[in-house]
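To: structure desk
From: M.T.
Subject: fold request, one chain
Message: Could you run this one when you get a chance? Sequence is below, nothing fancy, just the single chain.
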Amino acid sequence: MAGAEGSGAGASTASYGRAVEYRERLPRRWTVITVTVLAAWVAYQGSVLLPEDSTVWFVMLGFSAFLALVFNAVPISKRVYHRIRLEDGQLRVGRETIAVDSLAADSLREARDQPTDAEFVASLASRSPEELAELRRTSGATPSPRLMGGGWSVPMGMDQIVVETVRGEALQIATHDRPALLDALTRARHI
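Reply: Done. Structure tokens follow.
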């Protein structure tokens, strides 16, 4: 029990970064609402159609399951590809894991100063057409960062941060709570 208080043998050898834990909770409101509405619809149809028209009810059940999948494709995608966990000095985004020590400390500092998506869109709206053409030209010359965890792009409703590894690879991380993730990463990286 002494290790639980921080005075055991493992406490002195464990690095501070391994003690930082962070789990990003994904919103579930949309999923709960859609599944509840579709379940109520299936129950209502069951009360009307069963037992005489059981074939029609099974078709409605299958169609409702298909609709539940369609309506919840984005939340399912977020859960598979963009769930963020930080434990034992490892950053896990979806199915991809990297060591926090492999992230460049300077890029974590710079990520705090990156504009949010809303701020970036507002800054683009205030620019002239010539400035936008120049931005388009220069952005085409630089490679876009790899989206960590997989997927095609940052899902709707999520913000993003761009960090670099010590090897110079740019990584884009989709997040719901940008300040909390950056705080956890900087504490784990000892910045």
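Reply (cont.): Residues 29-49 form the longest helix (21 residues). Let me know if you need anything else for the meeting.
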